[in-house]
Amino acid sequence: MPAGGLEPVSNERLARLFDENGTSYGTSPDGELGGFWDDHLFTFWHAGKDSEFFQVRGRWTRGVPESELDRVLRLLNDWHVDKLWPKAYVEANDGEVYVFTEHTVDYADGATDAQVHLHVRTAIASSLALFEALDGQYAEHVAADKARLEDESSAGGA
After folding, report:
1. Does residue 44 sit within a domain?
2. Each residue of 43-92: pLDDT tens digit?
3. How confident is the model at residue 79, as a pLDDT?
4. pTM score, two decimals?
5. Radius of gyration of the chain from Cα atoms?
6. Per-residue confidence at 3, pLDDT binned at 50, 70, 90?
7. Which residues contact 14 (CB under 8 A, 6 or more apart)?
8. CATH classification of the domain holding 115
9. CA–CA separation, 76 vs 146, rounded Å?
């Protein structure tokens, strides 16, 4: 380990930290880590020439009709006025609007285990707070999404 307890933030290290904490996660065929928190997908990315940037990316489970784009943009702008995290943005695809969050930090010099845990907790907690605020604005979509998830769960268990 480098001096000062700083180590690169790799998928292997992240998996070890998750295992030590009992965090449930999965690994994609290309080796990327991800998992669900409160039914929202979070993925863990590395970018940069030497993978020095570590990013936690969240996706609000609910899609809303593209006709809601302006409203969603206003809601996200209002969020960003008062909150530092997470960075949030929308993508419109096939008539639906999807909200994504990101929390990215440059760890070119490495990070301690405590820093990595704090990064992940901050990213997920702040994203879930935003998703909860969006859920409050789109209760009908929340109900429809929960019904869909229950139907999929029932069909999978039958």
Report:
1. no
2. 999 999 999 999 999 999 988 999 999 999 999 999 999 999 999 999 99
3. 97
4. 0.89
5. 17
6. very low
7. 33, 44, 116, 120
8. 3.30.1460.10
9. 23
Over range 135-153, report the average pLDDT. Answer: 87
Q: For residues 45 and 28, what is the distance between their CA atoms, to the nearest angstrom?
A: 12
Q: Using CA atoms in the order 1, 23, 119, 15, what is the torsion angle rounded to 10 degrees?
A: 40
Number of domains in the chain: 1
Q: Which residue, 62, 25, 90, 42, is CA-closest to 147?
A: 62
How much is the pLDDT for 145?
81
25 closest CA partner among 124, 93, 129, 154: 124
Please state, rounded to an integer, the average pLDDT across all residues of the chain: 92
Question: What is the chain written as a DSSP string?
Answer: --GGG-B---HHHHHHHHHHHT---EE-TTS-EEEEETTEEEEEEEESTTS-EEEEEEE-S--EEGGGHHHHHHHHHHHHHH----EEEEEEETTEEEEEEEEEEE-TT-B-HHHHHHHHHHHHHHHHHHHHHHHHH-HHHHHHHHHHHHHHHHHHH-
In a domain, residue 78? The reply is yes
Query: What is the pLDDT, as a whole number, of residue 146?
Result: 82
